[in-house]
Amino acid sequence: MARHGKNPMLLTRRLAQPAPVTVITVVFLPELEGFWRDGLEVLRRCLGSLRSTTPQPFELVVMDNGSCAGVRTYLGELFENRDIDQLLLSRRNLGKVGAWNLLFAAAQGEIVSYVDSDIYFLPGWFEATQQVLDAYPEAGVVTAQAMSRDLRHYCGSTLRGAAADPSVECDEGPGLVPREYVEAHLTGLGESRESYEQRIPTRHDVRLCRGDRQAFAGSAHFQFSGRREALVELFPLASSRAMGDVNVLDEAIDDAGLWRLSTTGYYVHHMGNRVPDLEVELPWVQQELSTTARGPGRADADRSRKSLSRQFWDRLGLSERYRVRQLLKRLNRWSHELLYPD
Q1: Which of the two residues, 99 and 14, has the higher pLDDT score?
Q2: Which CATH number applies to 21-270: 2.120.10.30, 3.90.550.10, 1.10.3210.10, 3.40.190.10?
Q3: Residue 319 predicted with pLDDT over 50
Q4: Which of 22, 28, 116, 217 would give a disulfide with 65, using CB separation of 3.0 to 4.6 Å?
């Protein structure tokens, strides 16, 4: 039968344009028991902290990499509520690099930020990242956490480029990254200080300075941002393992002559597979709040503490919407237990 009428889309004068920033993430929770028992709550805190700390409009693209039905249902609810802009589903695990190949092809923003789904965002992460990208146009990727690594075996193009650039000053030493940052990151990784020192026996921090903008040499795979025009040229990347091939990205960045950098502050925290106690793992956050709360008058200080306390809990990803949802769930459970006792 012939077509009748005109497609209504022909009358559409303007399509929605992509946001200037695209945030992409991969989710892999094959079950919600054992190793992954806290996985859904960790994911909630990741996405909640991202929403509450990102001032720039962004589109969120999520790829589920073979998770269980409960996780896919949760992601579907977020998509229906417009908390996720694009949702990609894979029946099988394509590996991290395989997921990157799809996600970076789907990202349309001028800035693309990748994040593992177990990362917690602190306020200022995007602003600090943007400052580094603006000050260092050579940057391929920027991680929003000060990196401390054995840089003699990494970041070849970064170190060579910085050394050859007269506009860049370099400070080098084993302890330029604050100790508390290193300890916090190791806690999230579940790694002891002894294991870290054995793994990186020749720690060598390199801090760059161009004008009044500083950055550390080095980046991480758990979170990084870059300009789309530079990143899309690096993909697709070859991979044969689920998690072990991520260094191919480092090699591609070095081969392209780009720099791998990180902020000088600690703006993203690796939660791992358990819900973190951020007051313990990030003690300087609570200390900043307590210091700021000290005002000239007791009443003003009390009000400030209440306001800052709420900010602190918001930093945990516990948004107002999330707290209301949790309360409603509890009320529903309690009423069910009253009406239908065992």
Answers
A1: 99
A2: 3.90.550.10
A3: no
A4: 28
Q: Which of 10-19, 156-165, 303-312, 323-332 has the highest mean pLDDT?
A: 156-165
Pairing of strands 213-217, 259-262: antiparallel
Q: pTM (2 decimals)?
A: 0.80
| Bridge partners, 215 (sequence order) | 208
Long-range contacts of 305-313 (CB under 8 A, 24+ apart): 312/285, 312/286
Q: What letter would DSSP give residue 34?
A: G
Please tell me the predicted confidence (pLDDT) of residue 304. Answer: 37
Residues of the chain with CATH 3.90.550.10: 21-270
Q: Which residues contact 326 (CB under 8 A, 6 or more apart)?
A: none
Q: Are 204 and 172 in contact (CB under 8 A)?
A: yes
In eight-state DSSP terms, residue 16 is P
* Strand ranges inside 107-201, DSSP E: 111-116, 119-121, 139-143, 169-173
d(CA 255, CA 227): 17
Beta-strand pair 86-90/58-65: parallel
Inter-residue contact 199 to 186 (CB < 8 Å): no
